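Quick bug: Tumor protein D53-like output formatted oddly.
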Amino acid sequence: MQLEEEISTLKQVLAAKEKHHAELKQKLGITPLGELRQNFCRSWYDMQSSTAYRKTSETISTAGQKTSAALSNLGTAISRKFGDMRNSPSFRSFEEKVESTVSSLKQSKVGGANSGGSFEEVLSSTAHASAQETPTNHHPLENSERTC
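Here's what came back:
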């Protein structure tokens, strides 16, 4: 019986102390959200201070630096290969053929008049001539729609 009375007394004392604790927190302006935020910040700091976090962070940083260096080297190698390719005999031959074709187009404009002119003018006159040959009121789907 005495043990049960002690337990009951201790429960009452604990409840009174918890009530007093809550009142003090309220007077100090400590809210549950503030406590949660403080606990989170403390936990975040503790985690960042841990050896595992520091090692992981260092590993990721090193991996990022190595990846950046590798991509830089890859870009340099690709640029070098393009430069080599541009200087190759095959590319030179292709380039000469394109220049020859452009030169021929400039000399023989569509319609034969006004030889010479810029490549843009040749393209423009070709497009203009092509537009004149195509009827403007014709819709490409018209024939397929009439078959039904």
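Actually, after a second look the formatting is fine. Residues 75 and 81 are 10 Å apart (CA to CA). Closing.
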